[in-house]
Amino acid sequence: MTKHEKIQRQTRAGTDLGGMFPRAFADEFVTIVHGDGPWVWDADENRYLDAISGNQNVNIGHGREEVAKAAKEQLERLEYTSSMLFANEPAMEYTEKIAEFTPDGFEKTWLVSSGSEANESAIKMARQYHYERGNQGKYKVISRRRSYHGNTAGAMAVSGFPARKTKMEPLFANFPKAPSATPYRCERCDADGGHACGVECANAVERLIQDEGPETVSAFITEPVTGAANAGAYPHDGYFERIREICDEYDVLFIVDEVMAGFGRTGENFAIEHWNVTPDIITGAKGMSGGYSPIGGTMPHRRIAEVFEGVEDGFQHGHTFCFNPASAAIGTAVLEYMDDHDLVDNARKVGAHLHDRCEEFYEYDFVGDVRGKGLMIGVEFVGDRETKEPLPETGSEFQSLLFEAGLDNGIVTYPGGGHVDGQYGDHVLITPPLTIDDELADEVANRMHATFADVGSALGR
Ligand code: PMP
Question: What GO MF terms are annotated (predicted)?
């Protein structure tokens, strides 16, 4: 019996939650009970290296006392006040702290409680922006085919992630999708290495805008470095620069979804800063709270925010938990921790080392591509490296195998992807806390090696 099978047996009794709990891979739940830095422990005191930072959010590591202290103090002082009726100090302090991280020109943040809400808010903000300027007809949001922007109805409508949406279709709005612009699988790149997934894929967005009618298009939304939908992939240089020009030309807002990549994960504060491009709206969530509280944020550029200043009721939006004081105090403590420990720099330096180590994974014949930036690394799997066909075991069969092999080797992994219309392989995201050093990065790489070796034998390779 493997260690994982033993854990499954031991935890089975207390975890019969049926379909009403978001179980992903394991047949039975492993219950995580405590964490410290990059490590987590299950109910039987088995220790795992958390190579995915909770869910790409626990960027400062688990169990930080500084954050617990800030939470306690704020909860004792004022846990909640309605943001529709009052301002509150922790939220103001937090948005100022966020502005130290955002690029020049981004001073404000609309605080919500998740990445999906941050993107919903961005979509609505873009729409009202056009409305206030007399362009009521601009409502469509274009996105890339292989993308994930959230699970709420609006965010799902702009996502191109079949595994998470097919059972929900038709969605409320079926917005147009542009090419994924993924170098490893670009339909337009030529065999001699001509990189069409730069400018040419961006031009495909322009054609979509023209076909749809520019007077109907409100925004283009994209992840600069893709997460769950395409593990660590990003377009070739020239893409984002050209997208900026196109958006300017057609009065379409350029929204970057930095829910996973933002707040340091890729070795820059925001992933879009790897390119010399200024978007109109940035969305964030995961690393913004380090996982210590459910927080998301929508950050408009000054030129967008200004339009709302002249409007009587401002942005026509809000949720009960918006600008939550307790969450805001936690968020400030998390961002201060990031500053105090230079975690963005660390992500860049240690990320480069981990990336080098991950290149070793090409020794497994089912590894097709290793990519990413900073500590956001993706590995894509294939059945055949020449044809790039997905593994025959593609989808949940392969992903469960990988996840469980990881647990057996004491490492938490995040498999995803899967064969869709013959175009994509499965993948795994490697996104450890930004606090790790080279030694721990080696530990991540070594445990991934052991995991891939086990997966290879299970697949008979
Ligand atoms: N956008 C991106 C890029 C994400 O990675 C995610 C979460 N995986 C979301 C949006 C949705 O965020 P949440 O799960 O907090 O709603």
Answer: pyridoxal phosphate binding; transaminase activity
Q: What is the pLDDT of residues 331-366, one digit of tens each?
A: 999 999 999 999 999 999 999 999 999 999 999 999
* DSSP type of residue 37: B
Q: pTM for the full model?
A: 0.95
CA distance 108 to 89: 15
> In 10 A of CB 22, how many CB atoms?
7
What's the N-to-C CA distance of the chain in angstroms? 22
Residue 304: CB within 6 Å of ligand 1? no
CA-atom Rg of the chain in angstroms: 22
Whether 390 and 425 have beta carbons less than 8 Å apart is answered as: yes
- Cβ–ligand 1 contact at 225 (below 6 Å): no
pLDDT at 280 over 90: yes
Chain center to CA of 370: 18
Would you say 325 and 79 are in contact if contact means Cβ atoms under 8 Å apart?
Answer: yes
Q: Contact at 8 Å (CB) between 68 and 291?
A: no
Q: Which residue has the tokens 């620069």?
A: 241
How far away, in angstroms, is 216 Cα from ligand 1 center?
A: 26
**For 75-81, which contacts have Cβ atoms below 8 Å and span 24 or more sequence positions?**
75/326, 78/325, 79/325, 79/326, 80/324, 80/325, 80/326, 81/325
Taking a C-beta distance cutoff of 8 angstroms, is the pair 359, 381 a contact? no
Which domains does the chain possess?
12-60+342-459 (3.90.1150.10), 67-340 (3.40.640.10)
Q: Ligand 1 test: best mutation among 259, 270, 295, most atoms within 8 Å of CB?
A: 259
Tokens in use for 378? 């993706």
What is the model's pLDDT at position 21? 59
149 Cβ inside 6 Å of ligand 1: yes
Using the 8-state DSSP alphabet, how is residue 319 labeled?
-
Q: What is the 3-state secondary structure (H, E, C) of 246-261?
A: HHHHHCCEEEEECCCC
Q: Which two tokens stand for residue 69?
A: 């202290």
ipTM for the complex? 0.99
Strands (E), 61-196: 110-112, 140-144, 177-178
Distance CA 201, CA 181 (A): 6
